[in-house]
Amino acid sequence: MSTNDAPDLPVPDRPPVTGPAAAVAPGRDAGAADAPERDAGTTDARTAQPDTVRFAALWDRYAARVQAYALRHVDPDTAQEVVSETFLVAWRRLVDVPGEPLPWLLVVARNTVANHRRSHHRARLLAHEVARLELVVPRAVDAPDRVVAERDALLRALARLTAREREAVLLVAWDGLDPSQAAEVARCSPTAFKVRLHRARRRLDAALAADDEPTAPPARTPPTPPTTAATAAPARG
User: What is the domain range of residue 169?
Assistant: First the structure.
């Protein structure tokens, strides 16, 4: 069984939860693209246990404690994701999990929480920028749906630019200034402004193109720790 074949992690029994991301474990990147697939039938040389048995024991003993840590920092739904992602890292790096695993697991959980917070912060900033731009470009009451959709997509794309890039685009496209005039407002040289405007337009085009793409399904799922010796045993062909 490879990591990609494994179903979702169950929710720990304790504490209750009502509700994956690149998590960085101590000292290295644990991203999905870099993590080797694991064979569920391999054996941990330190414990002489099959990997699935050791992982099941790790889950049974520490999942609730990792979840309790996550619940102190994020909402219950996000805490469940943190637990899943933490044990995904543990599964893929089982050989690196030390004999006293709890501190190691909590470092992974802490970094996963930080990743989620950064992601949520970016989402809030994006929503804030879109709201500010909507004040400048209110929706036309009788505008066709296509026009409204294009306007909304443009505002989202503008919101993804940096403040300087967005200013460069708006000074030229909305305020009608030529690059030399816009450079004066932006307090930079005309040459620097032209470079900034060129970069901003390229990023704007890329953001608009990305906005048109359908949302991709999740690329991977965390493994399920087996709960009994019978379910832990690998299938024999």
Answer: 141-212
